Amino acid sequence: MHPRPQLTRPEWQDLCGEWEFAHDDENAGVQAKWWRGDRSLGQTITVPFPPESAASGVHDPAPHPVVWYRRTFDAPAGDRLLLHFGAVDYRARVWVNGTEVCSHVGGHAPFHVDITHALVADGRQVVVVRAEDSVDDMTQPRGKQYWEPEPAAIWYHRTTGIWQPVWLEAVPSAYVAGLEWTPSFADRSVRVRVSAVDAAGLSVRVRLSLGERVLADDRYLVDGDVERTISLPRGDFRWSPASPTLIDATVSLLRDDEVVDTVESYFGLRDAEVRDGRFVLNGERLFLRMVLAQGYWPTSHLAAPSEDALRREVELIKELGFNGVRVHQKVEDPRFLYWCDRLGLVVWGEMANAYEYSVDGVARFTAEWLEVVRRDVSHPCVVTWVPVNESWGTPALPSDPRQRHFLESLYHLTHAVDGTRPVISNDGWEHTTSDIWTVHDYSPSADGLTSRYGTPEAAGRAFGRDWPGPRRIMLGDQERDGQPLMVTEFGGLSYTPNAGERWFGYRTVGDADALLTAYERLVTALVGSEQVAGYCYTQLTDTEQEVNGLLTETREHKVDPAAIRRINALPAASVPTEELHQLIEAAHRASLGEPE
C-alpha cells in the first residue's frame, strides 16, 4: 500500500527492510564521519521498527539518545528523485553519498527532500540517517513514551528513530507536490488546492469520479498554487460512518495537451461542526461513541507491525460498535487514516505532548503541530483537532499567563490553517477557548456520572467551579455558547491482577460478565443524559502494564464483541432521532425476516 494514500503515483520504491544500524552513546559519529557512508555500522535493523522493539531485530530498550542508519539503493529513472520519511523521532539529519541533504525536528511529522543533486552517476547510492531522541528533555513532545528505564502506570516503552515508512519517488522536472481538499456538503462543492514545482505556464487538470461516473473534469492555468472550487452534480455523495463514500480524483499537469505528471487522490464530501450543544455531521446531529486507542503494539511499539494490522485495527473498532476513535498522544500512520476514511470511522486528530513548558518547546511544538495538521487536513475521517491533552506541557495554566496564551494561540493557529473543523485547546480539563467542552471522568459508578451530567444544573456545576477534582474543567469565567459537552475519557475497566503482576487500571472487575455489566451501566448513564453529546471509553487495547482494554494487547477480544456493540448502540437522549431511526431499522429487518 502506498505510504501516502492521498497523493499517489504508481511508481515508488520502498526503502523499508534491512538497514545497517549503530548506537552512538558517545555521540562520536559526526566527528568520526559516519555520515560519509563508507563504513559499515556493525549491526542491522529492520526499518521502520524502532530499535527498542523486538520487531526491529535490535530489541534494546535501554536509553540510547543517538542512533545511526545506513543503506544502499539503486536510483530509479526520473528527472528528480525525492526521499520521504514518514516519521523519525526526534531530530533527524540525512546524508546521501556523503552530502547532507536535510534535517528535521519533530518525531511525528513527515518530511521529504529532493536528493537529485547528491546522486552519483555510477554505482549504488548510499543514504545515512542520524536520529537523536533525548530521554531527559521534558519539553520534547513524546506522548506516552516513558523517560524512566522501565514503563510504569500510563507510560510505555520508548520509540527512537525511524518508525514510519521510508521511500523513494521519481518525479518529472515539473510535478504535483501537494494537494488539499476542502469539501462543503452544504454547498455540494469541494475546494482543491494544488501545489506544483516548476510548473509556471502549464495547466492542471482535475478529474473527479465516483465509480464510472465522472463528476467533474476541469482545467486551470498554473500561476503559483492553484486554488479552485468545484461544484458537484446532484446525488448523495456524502461521507459519514454509516456511508463512507469516497470521491476519486486524478490530478494532472499538462504542457499544451501533453501530460507531464499525474497523481491519484480522493476526498470525502462532509461537513463537521458544532451547533446548539451538539456535534453535527452533514447537517445532522451525531452522538460520538468513541474509543481511546494508544496505537502501541507489543512487538513494534509505535510502529504498526504490518499494513494489515492498521486495517484490522479499524475493523475491530467498528466491530465493537464505536463510530469514532481518539488516537491518544500519537499522530497515527496515514494508512490508518486511509482505512478510517474507507471503512467509516471518525477520528480526533491528536498530538504527542511534552511534559514541561519552555519558550523553545513552544516553537518546536507549534511547528510540528502545524505540519501534522497540514498532513491530515484532507482526510474526511478527521473531524476534530486536539493539540493538547490534560495540560501536558503546560502544567501551570492557572498561574502562568504565558501558558494560557500558548493554548489560545494553538487554538487560533489551528483554525487559521483549517477553519472547517472544531478545535479543542486542552482535552480533559483546564480548557481555555475550545469548540467542544470535554472532561475526563473515571467515576467508578454510573450514579457518579449521572449526578454530574444528568441535568443542566448538574452539568453547569461540573463544568463551572464545582468540579470535585484538583483542576477545574474551564479556566476563567467562560460562558457556554453552544459548545457540546463530552466525557472523553471514562471507564478504564480491567480484570483484577494476579499477585505480583505489573498492572495499572482505574477500576478492577472479576471477569468478562462483570466487565460487561459495569460497561453497560457507565454507558447507560452517559447516553441517558440530554447534556452529553458524546463519549470516549478508555481504552481499546491492553497496552503494556495498562491492562484496561476491551481487547488484549495482541488484539484478541476479552468479551463478546456483539455485547459491546449492543451497548454502544443504546440510543442517546441528546439525539432524539436515534431512537426513531433504530425503530425504523428494526421494523425493516423484521419485514425481511432478519434477526434483530
TrEMBL record:
Q: Does the keyword NADP apply?
A: no
* Annotated keywords: Glycosidase, Hydrolase
Q: Which Pfam families match?
A: Glyco_hydro_2, Glyco_hydro_2_C, Glyco_hydro_2_N
From the Swiss-Prot or TrEMBL record, what is one GO molecular function term? hydrolase activity, hydrolyzing O-glycosyl compounds
* InterPro entries assigned: Beta-gal/glucu_dom_sf, Galactose-bd-like_sf, GH, GH2_Domain-Containing, Glyco_hydro_2_cat, Glyco_hydro_2_N, Ig-like_fold, Ig-like_GH2
Residues covered by the Glycoside hydrolase family 2 immunoglobulin-like beta-sandwich domain: 175-270
Q: Does the record's keyword annotation contain Metal-binding?
A: no
Glycosyl hydrolases family 2 sugar binding domain location, by residue? 14-130
Which protein family is named in the record? Belongs to the glycosyl hydrolase 2 family.
For this entry, the protein name equals Beta-galactosidase/beta-glucuronidase
Biological source species: Actinophytocola algeriensis
